[in-house]
């Protein structure tokens, strides 16, 4: 007889599915980005901070943004200012809609129960109100005052932790997104409420001399990739606005790779190898009176002439003065503004944050799809900042420049530098490291005359001229003059004229050696490209290239020339 064995049950693998976290928009500009995409639905949160930091306004703004007729918003006042007084002030903000009060936004005051020390009565009343209106979002303000009052009335034996856990459990079970608002200090982080809360948002007021700046930190938000650090907060007519410390880089190509923008100054493009690479950053550094603003004006004017849109951020002169100055060079910015080709941003208050500045410029550039942005000047920007932000100016400026270039914008910054006896300070260490191009200006004395000279001293990924060239500021703008090839000691401010050398030790003239050096650096170039890099004319280059080819220092295929050997100095 065959014995039948029972088959062992086959273990089936059950695939676990991730539970998605649905998020709500806070309705607070910039706050969703800091939270990593929005506020987790059904979360139990704490908004903490000192008096006047904006806690109640932040909570009220979130409530109005998410309340609906089906799932109303409920604002419960425990202790603090009376409801009528609070509503009178909150009505001044744009987000507050009085017509919604009593329909999809409800208010409840439990001050009497709190003052009576009836913690259980407070809990019962809250639960009853939740059952009555079935809210989707609840704010309890001020929760910290409630706990302090109950503690004083009943002594330290009261089980506060149990009360918090019961409240959090009931709010979560009722599928409510909730906020407890309270005045806490950092020393209270061991309070049980911080353990129970899914999210903790802390508001600060940074005081530095005569300046006060509000800041926000998301210390905890379960399940969300929050943006770390302190973020600037400003209260205005629209309510609370958050300026994220880090802006996600986005790309918006404005042209084909290799596209260059003209500076609008004849001869300068050639010194820069054909112009400014699109999407790069350039610093124009020089002492007072060298014409930095004029160069910036010509750069913007050229963009407008070619049909581009531009943004000009001014930190020193008033826009009206800027427009008058531009008119003296025959540049009509007023018409460009009316046609939407130019936006001028004037940011002069002494309590600015870099994050606010960045947001203003970034949004303006994005709105009009700007290809050029000028900041005139970074020295003025630094002075316009609140003192607490000046310490981090270098880091903040890096974020500003990287964000704009990440949008595909070409940015020009003017920088004030100081002439020194031991030579020219090209730029200060705050900006030189973060820019792709540095164009330096300075004064020199030549044969008793004070002249302005400029040079390109840095240009990432591009061949450029290395000579100093004199220039003048004329009624028509900037006029470039000759190269100062026969002078030494230009950096000292007192150049010395040298006798021209017809031949170098290698047997080449100075111009021949310069052309060969350009070809050896670039690999290969056309006559037009060599013209842009050296400033020589086509006629001059014909003879030079013919001789270099005969000496076998240069070869050519078609219209392109290539340096193949460096002459011996023997």
Describe this structure in words.
The chain has 570 residues and is α/β, with parallel strands linked by helices. 32% of the residues lie in helices and 26% in strands. The protein has 19 helices and 29 strands. The strands form seven sheets. It has a nine-stranded mixed beta sheet with strand order 5-4-6-7-3-8-9-10-11, sandwiched between helices. It has a nine-stranded mixed beta sheet with strand order 16-15-17-18-14-21-22-23-24, sandwiched between helices. A three-stranded antiparallel beta sheet has the order 27-29-28. Strand 28 and strand 29 (560-563) form a beta hairpin. The longest helix is centred in the N-terminal third of the chain and has 15 residues, at 119-133. It is elongated.
Which properties best describe this structure?
570 residues; nine-stranded mixed beta sheet; elongated; alpha/beta; single chain; 19 helices
Helicity level, as a percent range? 25-40%
Counting copies of identical and different chains, the oligomeric state is: single chain
Give the overall shape: elongated
Please give the alpha-carbon distance between the first and last residues.
109 Å
Q: Count of helices?
A: 19
Radius of gyration over all CA atoms, rounded: 33 Å
| Total E-strand runs | 29
- Biggest sheet strand line-up: 5-4-6-7-3-8-9-10-11
> Which structural class best describes the helix and strand composition?
alpha/beta
Q: Calculate the mean pLDDT score and round it.
A: 80
Provide the β-strand percentage band. 25-35%
Which regions are unreliable across 5 or more consecutive residues at pLDDT < 50?
Answer: 1-6, 152-158, 249-255, 499-503
Largest sheet: 9 strands, mixed
């Amino acid at each position: 007889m065959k014995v039948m064995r029972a088959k062992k049950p086959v273990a089936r693998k059950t695939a676990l599915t991730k539970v998605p976290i649905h998020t709500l928009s806070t309705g607070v500009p910039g706050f969703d980005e800091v939270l990593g995409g929005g506020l987790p639905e059904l979360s139990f949160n704490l908004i903490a901070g000192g008096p006047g930091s904006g806690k109640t306004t932040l909570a009220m703004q979130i409530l109005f943004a998410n309340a609906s007729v089906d799932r109303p918003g409920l604002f419960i006042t425990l202790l603090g200012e009376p409801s009528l007084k609070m509503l009178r002030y909150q009505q001044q903000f744009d987000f507050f809609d009085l017509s919604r009060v009593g329909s999809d936004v409800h208010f409840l005051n439990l001050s009497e129960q709190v003052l009576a020390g009836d913690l259980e009565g407070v809990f019962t009343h809250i639960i009853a109100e939740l059952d009555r209106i079935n809210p989707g979002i609840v704010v309890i303000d001020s929760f910290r005052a409630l706990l302090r009052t109950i503690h004083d009335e009943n002594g330290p034996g009261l089980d506060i932790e149990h009360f918090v856990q019961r409240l959090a459990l009931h709010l979560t079970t009722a599928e409510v997104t909730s906020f407890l608002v309270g005045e806490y200090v950092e020393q209270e982080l061991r309070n049980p409420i911080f353990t129970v809360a899914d999210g903790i948002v802390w508001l600060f007021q940074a005081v530095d001399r005569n300046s006060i700046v509000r800041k926000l930190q998301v210390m905890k938000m379960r399940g969300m990739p929050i943006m770390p650090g302190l973020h600037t907060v400003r209260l205005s007519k629209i309510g609370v606005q958050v300026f994220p410390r880090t802006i996600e880089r986005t790309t918006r190509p404005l042209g084909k790779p290799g596209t260059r923008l003209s500076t609008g100054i004849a001869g300068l493009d050639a010194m820069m190898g054909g112009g400014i690479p699109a999407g790069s950053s350039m610093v124009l550094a020089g002492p007072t009176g060298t014409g930095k603003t004029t160069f910036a004006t010509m750069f913007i004017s050229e963009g407008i002439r070619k049909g581009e849109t531009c943004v000009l951020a001014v930190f020193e002169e008033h826009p009206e003065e800027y427009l008058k100055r531009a008119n003296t060079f025959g540049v009509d910015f007023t018409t460009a503004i009316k046609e939407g080709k130019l936006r001028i941003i004037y940011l002069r208050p002494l309590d600015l944050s870099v994050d606010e500045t960045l947001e203003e410029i970034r949004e303006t550039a994005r709105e009009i799809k700007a290809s050029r942005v000028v900041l005139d000047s970074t020295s003025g920007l630094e002075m316009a900042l609140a003192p607490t932000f000046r310490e981090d100016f270098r880091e903040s400026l890096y974020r500003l420049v990287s964000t704009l270039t990440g949008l595909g914008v070409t940015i020009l910054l003017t920088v004030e530098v100081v002439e020194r006896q031991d030579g020219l300070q090209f730029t200060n260490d705050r900006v030189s490291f973060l820019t792709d191009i540095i164009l330096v200006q300075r004064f020199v004395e030549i044969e008793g005359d004070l002249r302005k000279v400029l040079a390109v001293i840095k240009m990432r990924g591009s061949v450029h001229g290395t000579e100093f060239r004199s220039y003048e500021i004329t009624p028509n703008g900037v006029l470039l003059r000759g190269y100062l090839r026969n002078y030494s000691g230009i950096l000292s401010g007192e150049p010395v004229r040298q006798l021209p050398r017809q031949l170098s030790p290698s047997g080449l003239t100075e111009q021949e050696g310069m052309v060969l050096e350009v070809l050896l650096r670039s690999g290969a170039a056309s006559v037009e490209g060599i013209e842009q890099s050296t400033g020589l004319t086509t006629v001059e280059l014909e003879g030079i290239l013919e001789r270099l080819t005969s000496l076998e220092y240069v070869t050519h295929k078609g219209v392109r020339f290539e340096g193949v050997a460096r002459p011996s100095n023997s």
